Structure formats: C-alpha cells, structure tokens
Amino acid sequence: MRLLLFTGKGGVGKTTLAAATGTTLAEHGRRTLVVSTDPAHSLADSFGTELGREPTGVGPRLSAVQLDPRGLVDTAWQELRGQLRGALTGAGVDALDAEELTVLPGVDELLALSEVQRLAETGYWHVIVVDCGPTAETLRLLALPEAISGYLRRLYGWSRAPRTARGPGDAVSSIRRLGEHLESLRDLLTDRDTTTVRLVLTPERMVVAETRRTLTALALRGIRVDGLVANRLMPAPGFWRGGAANWLRKRRDEQDAVLAEMRDAGLTALRSVEHCAAEPVGTAALTEIARELYDGGDPLVGYSPGEAELLQISDGDDGGYRLRVALPLSTDPAIELARVDDDLAITVDGNRRLIALPELLRSCEVTGAEFDSEGLVVSLAQPGSVH
C-alpha cells in the first residue's frame, strides 16, 4: 500500500493534481482512494460528483471521500477522548476539568489522520491519495502524533518499551492505548517506503520560499518528500496570439527563471503542468492533466529526488564529533539549537523538532553549528575537552 499526501500553499491547485494522480493510478490498474482532509472541501468539484463521508465510486477502481471532521468528532473521537480523560484523571486532574481539556485544538486534524490510517489498514486500497489542507495546516497535522506522544512520555513516563507508566491501573491503560495509537500514526507517516509527500507550488518566488521552508519542516520530522509539482505555467509560446502575447511572454519568462533557480538550488525532482484554458472537472479532464504531469507514465515509478540519511556522524577537530543533519535549507535560515536530555532540539525558521542523539553523542556538549548546501553541521565534544 502506498500513501501519497498532496499539500501546498492555498490556491496552488493541489486538489486538482491529487484527483488527477488518483485517476491515472486507477487507470494503471490500482485500486485507488482519493481522500480530502482539507476543511475547505473541493474534491467533489474536481470529480464533478457528490461525495460523502464514506468512499464513493467515481470510476473503475477509483473512489473518493471527503472526511467530515464534525462527524468524526461525534464518533471516532469518543474512544480517544475517553483514553485521554482516563489519563488526566489518573494524574489527579479533576473529572470536570479533564472533560474540558479533552476538547483539544487540532483534534479535527488528528481524527482525520486516524481515519486515513483506518482506511489504509483495511488492506483493500493499493494507493490512498490524500488532498491535505494548505501547508500550515498540514504541518500541524503531521506534527500532532509526535507532539502528543512526547507529552505522554514526559508527563506519565509512558514508553513503547514494555514498562509501566506512572499512575493508577485504569489511567495506565488509557495512557498506553493512546500512546500506542499516536505512535502508530507516527510510524505510518515516517515509513519512507509507504508514505510520501508531494508539494504543489506555483512558480512564484514567494510560493517557492514557503515550499523550501516546508521541505525543511518535513525533513525535520523524518517525512519523505518524493517530488515537487509546479502548477499553472503560462502556455508555451506557440499558443500566444494578439495583444496579450507580450504579457504572456513576460510572465512565462519570469516563471521559467524561477524554475531554473529551483533546479540550480538542487530541487531537481520537479515536474510542471501548464495552466488550463478551462477548469478541469471530471475524470476525462483529470486524465489529461495527469498525462501532462506524468508524461503518460506510472505516477509511482521513478519519482524521487533521492535523499541523504537524516543523521551522519564523523570525527571533528580536537577529538570531537561532527553531526550532519541532512536538511534542505533556505538561503538564510534562522536556526536555534538546544539540548533536552538525550535529544537535540533543532528549530529552523520556527519549525522545531527533537532528534534523539545517537548513543555515542549523548554525553557530548554542543560547541557550534554551521550550515551548507547539504544541511546543518553540528559540532560536539566531550565535557572538559573544550578549551
């Protein structure tokens, strides 16, 4: 089973490209489900048909569904909320307060992700294509499982390892069930053979800047990006006629310059789609989009930029070590480093991630950091060896 997540800045056309990708995957013989977790649903508009809370057939081997956050809150959330309420009351929080605290910001996104996992675990679908919300909402969605399980570890001593969390028996059971559920979501997102993200952008410098920040944020979370799609290019010069030709030529030249800058910066896993004269609605129009996007090929074949291992250790100066964190960085990133127990807290352009240090480095102190075209290089040394 493959899970493809499409996201990008609002208005770049990610829903259309997700629907087009699902359409061509089904045409290649795979049972495919296209799921919308975007609160501003437009997937039904792309397919030109009504969609409900359960998968609806929209073509041979192709189904689609628009997840209903409110419906999920009324059903699936009850079990998760019960687990969290049990954990809170076991920690001494008043029952009424515990009930109020379980109405969490972001619960809609967490439940949507849980529902995607449930659909994946049915084993029926070969590929699930997810039309996510805009970039900021997607990053929050993908960060939730790790963030909440991290709180459980610190507040209650919960661990995936077979040891007992702190608290009464019922609370321990609730903590463990909730923690295991969140860890399973995290595993699904970071399984690099199963889950990949495709970032959709329009060839404009402001949009590209946000895309680069998103690449960094996803790399920090260990989530694999397997391609970029530049959408809505001006048509090729052969179509230009009349007084608008000069404007079209200038606009296309600007777009081509942005794409060239992206490739020069190493963002080579880039495909492009020209702007359509008419809004693409229905599977026939989506098939045409997919033919241009994938050149008639299989969307799952040969579509990866190739990525370095996230952490690499080498010997540094004066007997210390150098830890390379492979991250795609913007031209002038704002980077902060801190130690949190055995973790290294890395914050890049406001996106924070705790990275577990390899055992070799846990007794070391951070002595410096720098960045280059391949990512961040952190210098570490044993205590007392720094002069």
From TrEMBL:
GO terms for molecular function: ATP binding; ATP hydrolysis activity. Residues 1-295 form the ArsA/GET3 Anion-transporting ATPase-like domain. Residues 318-379 form the ArsA HSP20-like domain. It holds the Pfam family ArsA_HSP20. It comes from the Bacteria. InterPro entries: ArsA/GET3_ATPase-like, ArsA_HSP20-like, ATPase_ArsA/GET3, HSP20-like_chaperone, P-loop_NTPase. Belongs to the arsA ATPase family. This is ArsA family ATPase.
